[in-house]
């Protein structure tokens, strides 16, 4: 636990909507994984970026490759997913949408189906063990892998949406934004939408994605990840802003990730206030709490200290995130009730 985070942010009930499973693994879990595979000779410094350090986005993607070597079996995945869920709960997160890219690992016999089933199993086990958090799963498409894999992943997600009793609720489009083009993935995303999967798409994470974002907005997505370069001041356009506002499409904003991955120069220059001042739905998220050495409480605190948000504003931000989630209506109502009855509730 981070001692610098104020008790209010820690105690605040929170909703996490943008968390990549393998980017969210803590130091403690990483040490266990490293100890299981000494032959890989992986040092902890290779799996996380520590406070005050910065890397290019490209270097961040190298870190994920290292982590994937450490999490390559059902056993590793179950352990890592359960630990991540517990840690979010300990940080006061009461509703979590975890996203992850199904992988094949021939060495250990891991298949994409087993991958999805193991994440679902981790979510079920945490529930049985009474971990205080409601968790849903977004199956991720890595843009690097092209249209055929994307279509396969949609079929997989559809199957599990129908058989996981509401755990699989949607899909994520992520991966290195410099690789591949959204236009090739549109048919798969359209199919996902048509079969009832919700879409959380990384968009305009880097400057050169204007045309792609225009295209993806035609779907339209249910939420946007990052959206760093949507507005005209940073090379986006009014048309993009207009479409996002018109559709009232919530933005998942990850302050520390954007600073550490060098897509945003400083906390002060982050696009959070641009959208927040417009009254647009903004949800603070961690992205990769392990890789970027953060927590959701810390992200709330950073937003407060950088943009002058008081406790009431933080409360409203966390509460409004409920309606941006992909949870079924009944769960949203339960969460609203929990928030309303929370001891921190300001009158
Ligand atoms: C785009 C990202 C990301 O799926 O193995 N991922 N994609 N932008 C980012 N900003 C920093 N952070 C993580 O988790 C790791 C994967 O999530 C995506 C990448 O595809 C990465 O390989 P999973 O659980």
Automatic annotation (TrEMBL):
InterPro entries on file: A_deaminase_dom, Ado/ade_deaminase, Metal_Hydrolase
Cofactors demanded by this protein: Zn(2+)
Keyword Hydrolase: yes
Annotated family: Belongs to the metallo-dependent hydrolases superfamily. Adenosine and AMP deaminases family.
Pfam families: A_deaminase
Classification via CDD domains: ADA_AMPD
Keyword terms, alphabetized: Hydrolase, Metal-binding, Nucleotide metabolism, Zinc
Protein name as it appears in the record: N6-Methyl-AMP deaminase
Assembly with partners or alone: Monomer.
PANTHER family found in the cross-reference section: ADENOSINE DEAMINASE (PTHR11409), ADENOSINE DEAMINASE-LIKE PROTEIN (PTHR11409:SF42)
Reactions catalysed according to its record: N(6)-methyl-AMP + H2O + H(+) = IMP + methylamine
Keyword Metal-binding: yes
Source organism (scientific name): Scleropages formosus (Asian bonytongue)
Domain Adenosine deaminase: 13-337
Molecular functions per Gene Ontology: adenosine deaminase activity; metal ion binding
GO biological-process terms attached to the record: adenosine catabolic process; inosine biosynthetic process; nucleotide metabolic process
């Amino acid at each position: 636990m981070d001692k610098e985070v104020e008790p209010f942010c820690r105690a605040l009930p929170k909703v996490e909507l943008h968390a990549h499973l393998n980017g969210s693994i803590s130091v403690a879990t990483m040490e266990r994984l490293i100890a299981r595979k000494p032959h890989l000779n992986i040092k902890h410094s290779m799996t996380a970026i520590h406070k005050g350090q910065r890397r290019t986005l490209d270097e961040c993607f190298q870190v994920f490759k290292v982590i994937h070597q450490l999490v390559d079996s059902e056993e590793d995945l179950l352990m890592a997913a359960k630990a991540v869920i517990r840690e979010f709960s300990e940080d006061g997160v009461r509703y979590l949408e975890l996203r992850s890219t199904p992988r094949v690992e021939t060495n250990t016999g891991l298949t994409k189906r087993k991958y999805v089933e193991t994440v679902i199993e981790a979510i079920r086990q945490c529930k049985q063990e009474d971990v205080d958090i409601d968790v849903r799963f977004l199956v991720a498409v890595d843009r690097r892998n092209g249209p055929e894999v994307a279509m396969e992943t949609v079929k997989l997600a559809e199957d599990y949406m129908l058989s996981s009793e509401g755990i699989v609720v949607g899909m994520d489009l992520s991966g290195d934004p410099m690789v591949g083009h959204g236009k090739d993935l549109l048919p798969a995303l359209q199919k996902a939408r048509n079969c009832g999967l919700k879409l959380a798409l990384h968009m305009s994470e880097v400057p050169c994605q204007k045309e792609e974002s225009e295209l993806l907005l035609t779907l339209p997505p249910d939420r946007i990840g990052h959206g760093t370069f949507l507005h005209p001041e940073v090379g986006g356009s009014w048309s993009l802003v207009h479409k996002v506002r018109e559709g009232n499409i919530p933005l998942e904003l990850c302050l520390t990730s954007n600073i550490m991955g060098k897509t945003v120069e400083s906390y002060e220059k982050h696009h959070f206030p641009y959208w927040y001042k417009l009254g647009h739905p903004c949800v603070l998220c961690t992205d990769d709490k392990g890789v970027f050495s953060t927590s959701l409480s810390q992200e709330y605190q950073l937003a407060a200290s950088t943009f002058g948000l008081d406790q009431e504003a933080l409360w409203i931000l966390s509460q409004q995130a409920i309606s941006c989630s992909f949870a079924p209506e009944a769960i949203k109502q339960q969460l609203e009730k929990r928030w309303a009855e929370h001891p921190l509730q300001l009158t």
